């Protein structure tokens, strides 16, 4: 992993193949390593650790989502991870997407990368469907549904090039509560895929490709999906759980900021 990351210290991500390679080093290898631990612990079947292609794809889906969402932050910090093969079709420099006059081109490239990233969803569904341990399932499923929700929020959204695009805290809590079984995860993925599908602009150069990708995933991986009811949960316990989760999220965010400020103060 360290060797692979070092390779890209002074090297731009040129092609989509190199994008896959970079994401493999920083996230795919994590997925492979964790999958082997799941199997070695005998909490999961040996197949989980043996099928490195699916484990790698799980990591790639998360990392590509982060790279797409973090365009502006990375630009401000002098980092570039969008593949030049994609963005060079629209502008001369990746940073040009942040210019107001290029916003339409920026959104077209954004949509192209999101469409490309959706190719990992069938692998995500197959991997999660093989898991048997509930704790491992939750650990793996929650980041994946967060990622598809983030892609839906970013799709065709100019705000990616103007500020920060994040899913709401209440939305995140709902996803954490729902993503505890495979039918629910499929329903969540289906929900956000439909959101993307209905926002595809006819004028987008990748509109046909995006519709085809989503239609294929619907047909092969998400037949007859609908969001499961949580009527079995008492409303009072549900409300308390959501409040506790929201407070915990706020606490961790505040603690992280305080720690960062403390470190920066120590450096000065």
From TrEMBL:
It is an enzyme of class 2 (transferase). It catalyses: presqualene diphosphate + NADH + H(+) = squalene + diphosphate + NAD(+); presqualene diphosphate + NADPH + H(+) = squalene + diphosphate + NADP(+); 2 (2E,6E)-farnesyl diphosphate + NADPH + H(+) = squalene + 2 diphosphate + NADP(+); 2 (2E,6E)-farnesyl diphosphate + NADH + H(+) = squalene + 2 diphosphate + NAD(+). One of its GO terms (molecular function) is D-glucose transmembrane transporter activity. InterPro entries: Isoprenoid_synthase_dom_sf, Squ/phyt_synthse, Squal_synth-like, Squalene/phytoene_synthase_CS, Trans_IPPS_euk-type. Its EC number is 2.5.1.21. One of its GO terms (biological process) is farnesyl diphosphate metabolic process. It holds the Pfam family SQS_PSY. Its cofactor is Mg(2+). The keyword Hydrolase does not apply. GO terms for cellular component: endoplasmic reticulum membrane. Signal peptide: none annotated. Keywords: Transferase. Pathway: Terpene metabolism; lanosterol biosynthesis; lanosterol from farnesyl diphosphate: step 1/3. The keyword tRNA processing does not apply. Catalyzes the condensation of 2 farnesyl pyrophosphate (FPP) moieties to form squalene. Proceeds in two distinct steps. In the first half-reaction, two molecules of FPP react to form the stable presqualene diphosphate intermediate (PSQPP), with concomitant release of a proton and a molecule of inorganic diphosphate. In the second half-reaction, PSQPP undergoes heterolysis, isomerization, and reduction with NADPH or NADH to form squalene. It is the first committed enzyme of the sterol biosynthesis pathway. Belongs to the phytoene/squalene synthase family. This is Squalene synthase. It comes from Physeter macrocephalus. The gene is LOC102983337.
């Amino acid at each position: 992993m360290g060797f692979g990351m070092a390779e890209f210290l002074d090297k731009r991500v040129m092609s989509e193949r190199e994008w896959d390679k970079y994401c493999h080093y920083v996230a795919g290898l994590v997925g492979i390593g964790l999958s082997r631990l799941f199997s070695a612990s005998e909490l999961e079947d040996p197949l989980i650790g043996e099928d490195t292609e699916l484990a790698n794809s799980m990591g790639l889906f998360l990392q590509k989502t982060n790279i797409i969402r973090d365009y502006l932050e990375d630009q401000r910090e002098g980092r570039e991870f969008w593949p030049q093969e994609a963005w060079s079709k629209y502008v001369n420099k990746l940073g040009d997407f942040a210019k107001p006059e290029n916003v339409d081109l920026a959104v077209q490239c954004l949509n192209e990368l999101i469409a490309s990233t959706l190719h990992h969803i069938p692998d995500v569904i197959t991997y999660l469907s093989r898991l048997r341990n509930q704790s491992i399932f939750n650990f793996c499923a929650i980041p994946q549904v967060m990622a598809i929700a983030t892609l839906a929020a970013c799709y065709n959204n100019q705000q990616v090039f103007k500020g920060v695009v994040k899913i709401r805290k209440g939305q995140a809590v709902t996803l954490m509560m729902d993503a505890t079984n495979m039918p629910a995860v499929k329903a969540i993925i289906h929900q956000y895929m439909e959101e993307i599908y209905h926002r595809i602009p006819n004028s987008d150069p990748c509109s046909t490709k995006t519709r085809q990708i989503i239609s294929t995933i619907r047909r092969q991986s998400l037949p007859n999906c609908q969001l499961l009811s949580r009527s079995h949960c008492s409303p009072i316990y549900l409300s308390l759980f959501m409040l506790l989760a929201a407070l915990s999220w706020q606490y961790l965010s505040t603690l992280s900021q305080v720690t960062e400020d403390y470190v920066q103060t120590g450096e000065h």
